[in-house]
Amino acid sequence: xxxxxxSKGAHSxxxxxxxxxxxxxxxxxxxxxxxxxxxxxxxxxxxxxxTAWSISDILGKTLAEGTKQSEVGKNELExxxxxxxxxxxxxxxxxxDGNASPLMTKLTRN
Length: 110
Fold this sequence. Notes:
This protein is mostly beta strands.
């Protein structure tokens, strides 16, 4: 028999289980977008790790970048775009463990 443990610490017995490693990085929400100031990016990771982020313009020039310690599951990153000109920018998130491809999504400053 297998025993599973939920993220809240609850234990339950199961007859069989599939075990896999999920190296995920997925953006679940960006709000507000477009924005005039701050925007919150909600994302999900498959493991505790350092997540790198960057903002670039439409020509690919990096305008800001940083890292955030992420925990397995839901995470949030807040970015201030108030000092940027109106336009389209790209947010890139990347797992630092090397197991996930970079994720890129569009942000709009209006």
